[in-house]
Description:
5 helices
Amino acid sequence: MAGQIFETLRRRDDARSQEEKTRLVNERERALFEKQQRALRQLVEANTTLPCTVSSVRVLGAVNTRPGFLKRIIDPLLSANKDRPYTLAEAIRETQYATDKLSRHGIFHEPISITVDRPDRTDPSSTPTDVDLYISLREKGRVAFRTGTEAGNAEGSAFTNLYLRNIFGGAESLNLNASLGTRTRTAYQANFESPIFANPDFRGEIGGLASSTQKTWASHEEVLKGGWTKLRWLGRGGKHEFGYSNIWRQVTGLAEKASPTVRGDAGDSVKSSITYSVTNDQRDYPLLPQSGYFTRSTLELAGWGPLQGDVAFGKAELEGQGAVPIPIPGVEGNSGVSFTSSLRAGLMYPLPLGFDSKPQSSRINDRFQLGGPTDVRGFRLGGLGPRDGADAVGGDIYAAGSANLLVPLPRLGPEKPFRIQAFVNGGRLLALKQSEKEEMSSRSVRNSISSTVAELGNGLPSLSAGIGLVYGHPVARFELNFSLPLVIRKGEDARKGLQFGL
């Protein structure tokens, strides 16, 4: 009994001793940080043009980050690696550039602090112009786990997500996601991403997926299994992405009344394709823009030449959006009222499979679909374009656009992410015109493309207008709109009334 009492008292003393040690360490670090901040202010204020030599750079707080990874970012700061001396202002600017690169890796909390100090004057290896740089970091957690539910676009789902950050100490990440839904019945996805040469603007990714999606607008279910690899980099014109994917697809679970077109494309196919895209986003707030512009172009080549697979085509899409603020007389500063417009178009060009010479017709799971609460409002999912009976079978060429006026809610003001929107949107989706008597050839495809593009401008596009409420959440845009279709072509599936989009 006495031994237990002494053991308990000893543990309490050890705990108190550890707490006291931690307190003293924290006070020592705080005192050092304050000293360095004072030294930095004094140095910068009095010596911005003073020549200086960066003799050492010390990174504090990077417990789980590889020294070799940090070395690639920090080494260029050292004066020994420069062809001319720094001024103090240049040294601080270059250090801020390095800390910005560290920040963009997404593994450290903000802010990242910089401290400049002079080395010990008693050190015989130091010179009067030497300065030491200290970069203080605080790493983010390495594991994040989320579960939740989502609703939108005529679908509800539950998901589980596991995110592993800075796995090997070089800003690598592994993202695992699983979901069950009313339309996407099951979806499993994993992707591993890593910076290349410690550059946050040059990254590689490899991933895989398995999913099963019910496509009620075309009376079938689509099963996907496959993988991809991608390179992303920041360059002239914006963010670039080049990738290769190999996906096995299956059109299955046909409804009893599935159309002949859907039945003809049922079964298995393999798409082996390369893609290239460029995105330039200069909007102030992408989900609820008040000013700026956005452009994206995407090219895909499938099945041609050495790519092989079961399908062959070339696909190109262009998208653009612009936003301008509208000043209101009597309202100072940002009124929160803005006008946005967008335009997008796509073309699918049939190509020979492999090294064959005869182009292939497109399949239902490769064609474009148009319509939906966040696509062309006032129409159901896949509501525009060619149909076979009740099935939306997609098209090879499309164009769509919209114009929106966004106004803040009266009592909330422009600072809140709520807007009333009035909109007009529309589009056209067409299949290539191919004569049943004419065998498909490269020449017939070119003629079909020309005639179908000309048909896009023949008459008004399918149109709708409406009014709604928009909420710009940090991760998604929510819309509740009342839409009124104005122009509907024969067979198209319009929807008058409320639509919820995510």
